[in-house]
Design goal:
Layout lengths: L2 E5 L2 E4 L4 E8 L7 E7 L6 E6 L5 E3 L7 E6 L4 E6 L8 E10 L5 E5 L3 E6 L1
Parallel strand pairs: 2-11
Antiparallel strand pairs: 1-3, 3-8, 4-5, 4-9, 5-6, 7-8, 9-10, 9-11
Length: about 120
C-alpha cells in the first residue's frame, strides 16, 4: 500500500520558519519526482517546488529564495524548508510522488495534506 504522509505544518508568525516533511512508503522512492503543492481557500492547487530523482529542483517564483526542497532517499523523505513566511503562504500543503515508467505510463500519488497558517 502506497502512503505519502505530510507533517510539520502548523501556525507560525509572519517572518517565521517551518519545515515540512513528506514520508513515503510502498514505492521505489528514489525513482520518483516529488513535488510540494499548496491550496489556499477558494484558490486552485498550485505548484510550490519539485525535486527530481536526480535531485534537480524547481520552484515557483513566489517562493524562490525563501523555500528549499531536499530529499533523503535513505529515509524515503522529502523536506520543504520554509523561511521568511508570509501571510499569503497560508494553505494546505500536499506532496505528490510522480514517475513515468519505461513504457510511458504515468504513476502518481498524493498525500493527505498538512495545514500551514501564517499569522500577520
Amino acid at each position: 500500500q502506497v502512503q505519502l504522509v505530510e507533517s510539520g505544518g502548523g501556525l507560525v508568525q509572519a517572518g517565521g520558519s517551518l519545515r515540512l516533511s513528506c514520508a513515503a512508503s510502498g514505492i521505489a522512492f528514489s525513482l520518483y519526482t516529488i513535488g510540494w503543492y499548496r491550496q489556499a481557500p477558494g484558490k486552485e492547487r498550485e505548484l510550490v517546488a519539485t525535486i527530481s530523482s536526480s535531485s534537480s529542483t524547481n520552484y515557483a517564483d513566489s517562493v524562490k529564495g525563501r523555500f528549499t526542497i531536499s530529499r533523503d532517499n535513505a529515509k524515503n523523505t522529502v523536506y520543504l524548508q520554509m523561511n521568511s513566511l508570509k501571510f499569503e503562504d497560508t494553505a494546505v500543503y500536499y506532496c505528490k510522488a510522480e514517475r513515468t515508467t519505461s513504457d510511458g505510463r504515468r504513476i502518481l500519488y498524493w498525500g493527505q495534506g498538512t495545514q500551514v497558517t501564517v499569522s500577520s
